[in-house]
Amino acid sequence: MTAKVGVVVFPGSNCEHDVVEAVDSIGGSGELLWHKDNHLSDVDAVVLPGGFAHGDYLRTGAMARFSPIMEAVCRFAHDGGPVVGICNGFQILTESQLLPGALYKNRGLKFLCQPTTLRVESTSSVLTRGLSQGDELIVPINHFEGNYICSEATLAVLREKSQIVLTYTDNPNGATADIAGICNENGNVVGLMPHPERAAHPLLGSTDGALLLKGLISDD
Amino acid sequence: MSQTFNVAVEVSLREGIADPEGLTIERALPALGFSGVSGVRVGKSLRFVVEAPDEDEARQQVESMCERFLANPVIEDVEIAISGAS
User: Fold this and answer.
1) B69 at the A interface (CB within 8 A)?
2) Most buried pick, A196, B44, B45, B79, via CB within 10 A?
3) pLDDT tens digits for A155-207?
4) Residue A62, exposed/middle/buried by CB under 10 A (0-12, 13-18, 19+)?
């Protein structure tokens, strides 16, 4: 059966169609979900896409967390459903406390839009379960606030429980421990700053992002 | 009977967290002839009015909104100033 991936549209999201396109191209079925809905219909996985949800007012992700659909997303996540936040979606996941830490302005204060090389650190997340530790992937970033920050205690837990999913080989934004993506303890909730949907077709210069998204639609 | 309180909340980055914006401003100041400036930190300020039975209750409400919404305790500290009923 084709896996249905729900992609949540907040006011200000701007990567939702790219995610749907990428999911469809790898054999899944992407479906847009509106942030004001209070249910997820019958999707098998949820993606919070990139953009500027609610204008990023107050802090990135701070308002989106209160969108009605987020209650359903949190329930789905707590029940073990795969939830992936990309870029702004990652920021929403940390504000919702589905993932620890926070994303702050890039070191150097530049908006960064460039390909990055990522290293797979853990294969226990829904995005990396088809990959091997040490694999290198080329996936672009596109953000101003991607500098991952957490306390030393949190970092120790992330390391101990293999929750660091992806790191940058050449840290572009000052992120703690070169972190590009993390997951929760169960591995079903993943947040990452790079955009796998923008590296899902040969025309885009890399298809490595598709390798990550495939984890979302696999049967395991 | 409820009273009205003026609230000022200053949100700043927690100590120890690098503030690239503050640093950039600090580096620019000498070019304008302001030497000897250090420790520049950038934050934001929120002003609003709260209705509550008394100042303690008002403060409790504001503390709770800061914790849950107005600031992110992972990276930010808050300072709350409440001025008299008007």
Assistant:
1) yes
2) A196
3) 999 999 999 999 999 999 999 999 999 999 999 999 999 999 999 999 999 99
4) buried
Q: Considering only CA atoms, which of A138, A52, A60, A130 is closest in space to residue A101?
A: A60
Rounded CA-CA distance A129/A187 in Å is 9
- Enumerate the residues of chain A whose CB falls inside 8 A of the CB of residue B20: 105-109, 174
**Which of B72, B76, B78 to mutate against chain A (most A CBs within 10 Å)?**
B72
Q: In terms of residues, how long is chain B?
A: 86
> For residue range A118-127, what is the model confidence (pLDDT) as tens digits?
999 999 999 9
Instruction: Report the DSSP pairing between strands A4-9 and A45-48.
Output: parallel
Q: Which residue in the set B18, B21, B74 is minimally distant from A150, CB to CB? A: B74
CB distance A62–B69 less than 8 Å? yes
Question: Is residue B86 predicted with pLDDT exceeding 60?
Answer: no
Domains of chain B: 3-85 (3.30.1280.10)
Catalytic residue set of A: 87, 195, 197
Architecture of domain A4-217: 3-Layer(aba) Sandwich (3.40)
**Does A151 lie at the interface with B, CB-CB under 8 angstroms?**
yes
pLDDT of residue B2: 87
**pLDDT for B85 beyond 70:** no
Domain boundaries, chain A: 4-217
